[in-house]
Amino acid sequence: MKLLRQLLAAIALIAPLSAFAFPIATTGTEGNPVLVGSTANIVARYEGNSASYSNDLYLVTNDGIAGNDIFLFNNHGSAIGATVDLGSFAVGSELVFRLHVNNTNSDYFTGLAGRNQDGSFHARVQGNWLPNTTLVSFEDLYNGPFEFNDLSFSFSNTTTPNDIPEPASMLLLSLGLAGIAIARRKPRKS
Question: How confident is the model over 50-70, as a mean pLDDT?
Answer without folding.
Answer: 87
